[in-house]
Amino acid sequence: MIHKKTYNAKELKTPNGNLLIEGPITGEALASYEFHQDLVAFRPPIQQQKALVGIADLPEGRIIVARDRHMIVGYVTFLYPDPLERWSEGKMENLIELGAIEVIPKFRGSGVGKNLLTVSMMDNAMEDYLIITTEYYWHWDLKGTGLNVWEYRKVMEKMMNAGGLVWFATDDPEISSHPANCLMARIGKRIENETIQQFDRLRFMNRFMY
User: Which residues of the chain have pLDDT under 50?
Assistant: First the structure.
């Protein structure tokens, strides 16, 4: 499979100033920017930036960022699922995962997340992919936002919908362990039925287990 990447960008006006939403960007470009000190959801900012630089240069890896001049204040990542997850078991070349999305507190509530996803899907090559995301409530910033699990889930689902991702049922044990957890996916326009059937088999792997 040829992994095409077409750069797109748009300006977003927010109450805290204008941001440039752009990507997919190269590892070199990503390394040249500063990473905001509040991007700490997954690991310390310097380590996270290093990890994203690595993802950006993978054939299927895509990083879209929200940038305040030279400072990255938000990002979303797309790459193949973790080899330890069931979603990688089918070894599907056209299945990629929205692995992480993060926006610093200062710019939350300004539509940054939605616009990161909108710009991501502006690339026509995304129609060749089945894109998934797995959402777990223990990754959510409930303390920082003051939202409860269900309020956060609603906000998160609305944001994912902006990128065309919708809820899908699954019997994955980790997702099934809490009703707020969920699997969401976007099936590209050029995805064939065979791929959808393969995805369905990955979604329900325990149906014959008693």
Answer: 209-210
CB 78, CB 62: distance < 8 Å: yes
Indicate the pTM of the whole model: 0.93
pLDDT at 145: 84
Rg (alpha carbons) of the chain, rounded to whole number: 17
Alpha-carbon distances of 137 from 20, 88, 181, rounded to whole Å:
29, 22, 6
Q: How many CA atoms lie within 13 A of 91 on its CB side?
A: 0
Which CATH number does the domain 8-203 belong to among 3.40.630.30, 3.90.79.10, 3.20.20.70, 3.90.650.10?
A: 3.40.630.30
Q: What are 192's two structure tokens?
A: 């064939």
Task: Give the residue carrying structure tokens 């956060």.
Answer: 152
Identify the sign of the CA torsion 164, 166, 168, 172.
positive
Tokens linked to 9 = 């960008």
Pair type for strands 130-135 and 95-103: parallel
Residues 36-85: tens digit of each pLDDT = 999 998 889 999 999 999 999 999 999 999 999 999 999 999 999 999 89
pLDDT at 115: 98
